[in-house]
Design brief:
The chain is α/β, with parallel strands linked by helices. The chain is built from 17 helices and 14 strands. The protein is 47% helix and 13% strand.
Length: 421
């Protein structure tokens, strides 16, 4: 591979795309990605994702392909499978899902028929679109019964109420996991509910997969969960992909559901990048990295709360936090997001529990610490970031002041290189 030559060809033959990529590099270097679902991946992952493996069709599974010429693709996928099983301590791994939504869809279709019931977290309380949001295809195909959290009790889940709901509706899958819930998961509590109604246990740990791999958050398999799904690009720092991890007795149903049920040929360049990521996750440095993510989140949440920001769970157990910007700053999430964009802090607007505002102008913002931690930022920088957020949102109309803050952010960011640039 000749990366320099490839870049010269791109610059020569498509200047618009080339300039957009270079522009994005500069944007990422000058600012801080605080969206908790975003991270900076490894240079080795970028190399694999841009490799000639993108040329190869590999429908099927290792040693069971529908196309010839699979000597090296079989090596790549088997390495990814073996490493996923080791990292997550599971019996079986499917590494082919293209991303988070397809991985969850494949699980549903493996075990359910249209109309069957799934018990999942309400979207506004932290659940994902694929956990039964009415606007999603999954929400229209399956009967999702949604449980909620108690915002007045640090976002905890009432398992007595959850048990009542499960016994009333008899779900076939009890699903836990989240996209904007800053607490850990009581896997034992969910397992007890599922056992009471004879349901399959499923944990979607897309956000905390890397933290589980690093050993700093609980692993659902330690609580005898049946199926665990995770993306590979958030706290795991890999390419954009998904993993379905399960007990051996569910392996055949899962594999058939992914291919040929839901997808065609896997993206082998991504699977190679996933294998690289999983090898990285086995190293001692990765554990230290995940420990720092949690330390940074604790400090950032404390700074925000100390300065008047209302966090929906009054703190965090993981890498993320959700600020109620209406109560904190009398701003909706869209204005808050746009204001922080002006000072090169990238967050995302976010609905909060039982939000009365529409999704495009919700009552909150969501932020997290994986990407900043990847760049080497620690407690000192979290203090600075927290103060910048507070100052910016309290002075959102003062463009001159925001420009001053932006200069401070960019000056600090130049000290912390983005991997791969």
């Amino acid at each position: 591979m000749n990366k320099d030559k490839n870049w010269r060809l791109l610059e020569k033959n498509d200047k618009q795309i080339y300039k957009a990529i270079i522009g994005e590099e500069k944007r990422q270097q000058k600012g801080i990605e605080l969206i908790p679902s975003e991270n900076y991946t490894y240079p080795e992952v970028l190399a694999a994702n841009g490799s000639i493996l993108t040329n190869k069709y590999s429908e099927g599974y290792p040693k069971k392909r529908y196309y010839g010429g699979q000597k090296y693709t079989d090596i790549v996928e088997q390495l990814a499978i073996d490493r996923a099983k080791k990292v997550f301590k599971c019996e079986h791994a499917n590494v082919q899902p293209l991303s988070g939504s397809p991985m969850n869809q494949a699980v549903y279709f493996a075990f359910l028929k249209p109309g069957d019931t799934i018990l999942g977290m309400d979207l506004s309380h932290g659940g994902h679109l694929t956990h039964g949001a009415p606007v999603s295809h999954m929400g229209q195909i399956f009967n999702f019964i949604r449980y909620k959290t108690d915002p007045e009790n640090k976002g905890k889940i009432d398992f007595k109420e959850l048990m009542k709901i499960a016994k009333k509706h008899k779900p076939k899958i009890v699903l836990c996991g989240y996209t904007s819930y800053p607490r850990d998961i009581d896997y034992a509590g969910f397992k007890k509910v599922a056992q009471a109604v004879g349901a399959i246990t499923m944990a979607d740990v897309a956000h905390i997969g890397g933290l589980i791999a690093g050993g700093v958050m609980n692993n659902p398999f330690d609580y005898s969960f049946d199926i665990v799904t995770t993306t590979t690009h958030k706290s795991l720092r890999g390419p954009r992909g998904g993993l379905i991890l399960c007990k051996e007795k569910f392996a055949q149903a899962i594999d058939k559901s992914v291919f040929p049920g839901l997808q065609g040929g896997p993206h082998m360049q991504t699977i190679a990048a996933i294998a690289i990521t999983l090898k990285k996750a086995m190293q001692p440095e990765f554990k230290k990295y995940t420990q720092q993510i949690l330390k940074n989140a604790k400090i950032l949440s404390q700074v925000l709360m100390k300065n008047g920001a209302k966090l929906i769970t009054n703190g965090t157990d993981n890498h993320m936090m959700v600020i109620d910007t209406i109560k904190s700053f009398n701003l909706d999430g869209r204005v808050a997001e746009e204001t922080l964009d002006k000072i090169s802090l990238t967050v995302n607007k976010q609905i909060i529990p039982d939000d009365s505002h529409p999704p495009l102008r919700p009552s909150g913002i969501r932020l997290g610490t994986p990407a900043a931690t990847t760049r080497g930022m620690k407690e000192k920088e979290m203090e600075m970031i927290g103060q910048w957020i507070i100052k910016a949102l309290n002075n959102y109309k003062d463009d001159k002041f925001l420009k001053k803050l932006n200069k401070e952010v960019e000056t600090m960011c130049l000290k912390f290189k983005v991997p791969g640039i």
